[in-house]
Design a protein that fits this description.
alpha+beta, Chitinase A, domain 3, Serine Threonine Protein Phosphatase 5, Tetratricopeptide repeat, seven-stranded antiparallel sheet, six-stranded antiparallel sheet, PPIase_FKBP_dom, repeat, rotamase, TPR_rpt
Length: 459
């Protein structure tokens, strides 16, 4: 079979001859492919072989981790296909070669078997919970980031059935508002403009254990999306903003976060409030009124974050947010109260009560704090009673163990009234004599005389 020219310039730089046909689709850019190969020079000299090592070779397709000819040739192969790739020097190791095995300007031949592949792993923990299979390559070299306005088309499928097909525009990082699952948002941060890809998303980044009744998707279901990033606009870089512009952006995001909080979208509110703090933490000189406004925004945002963390049971983060408020205002009533709640959530009523007592000092009429003090006292009493019972049980247990040990020691000691020492053995009688008739009738009495008479010796 004549070789097929796969080179982009059609200069015969990469020729492929199929030895064995494969089946199905071909891998796409970013896929982790597995191949067996044998490489030879044109004279038949073998310089490398994965088969000799008994282990397939893996690489990320289209990422420049192998010679150009491989990225081009393997991308054209199907699963199970075996092909000969003839690679011109400019698509292999070029003028320098790869000493000592591959000489300069060498044309190489590879027999390659495509064993299989997995999609590009985009999951945060690299556990293959978000896999990408590229359909159309994107343009430019920029990716959208959190805060970018993205315009996408997506088609969602479950068990091969389409459950949604729509165009949607949203702020990346806030897709929950328009029904975008977390896995799609994570993947979009790796897309290029006009890219189209197929995503396989595990349930933990899709509809989780709740499923989606509207789409007839059961709990813990994996789904598939075909996503096209039609366009996106990046946020203005913070470093390029003036102080007044940062304050305005911070205020705008704070209002958005409050809207999400009131809608019970606490995780979204947390994201947006964190963005507020980023605008305020950029190394900028905030002067005069702007400095006062900046400090006030920072304080209220930390307070709001603390409340969000309490709602999501992230008590340690709530405490840390309150600590930051109290660094700015040591007598802040709300921060003291919310930190007290955080300590309660961390099962530390003895610490929480101190915060609630401080609240009363700041505002004696705070009846809610007074009730929390009663709750803390009640919890502390219960905790002490529980500990007392626990320690009492422990002491009883230790006393019982000590008693058992004493009894075991006593059992190990010889009983002078029984056994070989209680029932006198012959060797214990003076001279090793035999027992008398009296001694046989009274085994626990040893006669000291030698002949069993009433005459005692050595008294």
């Amino acid at each position: 079979m004549a070789g097929i020219d796969l080179s982009p310039a059609k200069d015969n730089g990469v020729l492929k001859e199929i030895i064995k046909e494969g089946q199905g689709d071909t891998p796409t850019v970013g896929c982790k492919v597995r191949v067996h190969y044998t490489g030879t020079l044109l004279d038949g000299t073998k310089f490398d072989s994965s088969k000799d090592r008994g282990k397939p070779f893996k690489f990320d397709l289209g990422r420049g981790s192998v010679i150009k000819a491989w990225d081009i040739g393997v991308a054209s192969m199907k699963k199970g296909e075996v092909a000969i790739l003839t690679c011109a020097p400019e698509y292999a190791y070029g003028k320098s070669g790869s000493p000592p095995l591959i000489p300069p300007d060498a044309t190489l031949k590879f027999e390659v078997e495509l064993i299989g592949w997995n999609g590009e792993d985009l999951s945060p923990n690299k556990d293959k919970s978000i896999e990408r299979y590229q359909i159309v390559a994107g343009k430019s070299y920029a990716n959208p980031e959190d805060g970018a306005q993205v315009n996408i088309h997506l088609v969602g499928k479950y068990n091969g059935q389409v459950f949604e097909d729509r165009d949607v525009e949203f702020c990346l990082g806030e897709g929950e508002v328009v029904g975008i699952v977390e896995g799609v948002e994570i993947a979009l941060k790796r897309f290029l403009k006009e890219e189209k890809s197929r995503l396989i998303i595990k349930s933990k980044y899709a509809f989780k254990e709740q499923g989606n009744a509207e789409f007839n998707i059961p709990p813990n279901a994996d789904v598939e999306y075909e996503v096209e990033l039609k366009n996106f606009e990046k946020e203005t870089e913070m470093w390029s903003m003036k102080s007044s512009e940062k304050i305005e952006q911070a205020k705008m995001h704070k209002e958005k976060g409050t809207h999400y909080f009131k809608s019970n979208r606490f995780n979204l509110a947390i994201k947006v409030y964190q963005k507020v703090l980023k605008y305020l933490s950029v190394d900028t000189d905030f002067e005069n009124d702007l400095k006062l406004e900046k400090n006030n925004l920072e304080l209220t945002t930390h307070l709001n974050l603390a409340l969000c963390y309490l709602k999501t049971n992230e008590h340690l983060l709530a405490k840390e947010s309150c600590d930051k408020v109290l660094e700015l205002d040591s007598q802040n009533e709300k921060a003291l109260f919310r930190r007290g709640l955080a300590h309660l959530g961390l099962a530390s009523p003895e610490i929480a009560i101190k915060d609630f007592q401080e609240v009363i000092k700041v505002e004696p009429k705070n009846t809610i704090a007074s009730k929390q003090i009663l709750i803390c006292n009640n919890l502390i009493k219960k905790q002490l009673a529980k500990e007392k019972k626990l320690y009492a049980n422990m002491f009883d247990k230790f006393a019982q163990e000590d008693k058992q040990k004493e009894e075991e020691k006593l059992k190990e000691q010889p009983d002078v009234m029984h056994g070989t020492l209680g029932e006198w053995g012959q060797e214990e009688r003076p001279g090793g004599r035999d027992a008398t008739a009296f001694e046989k009738e009274n085994p626990n009495i040893l006669m000291l005389n030698a002949n069993g008479t009433d005459e005692f010796q050595n008294m």
